[in-house]
Amino acid sequence: MNTRELATKFMDEILYDGDWITQWTPFNEEKHYADWPGKFENLLDKLIGELGSDFFTDEFICMFTCGDYDDMMDVIRAHPCLKSLYELLDEYHDWLSD
Questions:
Q1: 11, 12, 32, 52: which has the fewest Cβ within 10 Å?
Q2: How far apart are CA 42 and CA 64, in angstroms?
Q3: Residue 68 backbone class (left: φ over 0; alpha: ψ -120 to 50; beta: rest)
Q4: How many CA atoms lie within 13 A of 72 on its CB side?
């Protein structure tokens, strides 16, 4: 999976799990994507360099975007570089809420 696909997967996990997709009729792709893929790609490039691409499994993406908060914090404690990803996902979630 390339970095763009990985970025989109993180974004889609929030979008579909949070039922944001059902709030937009018709689906507003510009609202969903805007400049966010670039933000995610830049960050994920750095994280992949540090953690390796194999770190970002489907299970990890699901857990990290919509899983248990304590589990996410455990992963961040084990890999502090992921705090920036958590913060960007939180910022994206807030942006979708506006």
A1: 52
A2: 18
A3: beta
A4: 17
Torsion angle of alpha carbons 50, 54, 56, 60, nearest 10°?
Answer: -120
CA distances from 69 to 25, 56, 62, 75 (A): 30, 18, 12, 10
Residues spanned by the domain of 67: 3-97
> Across the 98 residues of the chain, what is the mean pLDDT of every consecutive 10-residue run?
86 72 58 78 94 92 87 95 93 78
Exposure class string for 42-61: b at 16+ Cβ within 10 A, else e = ebbeebeeeeeeeebeeeeb
Number of domains in the chain: 1
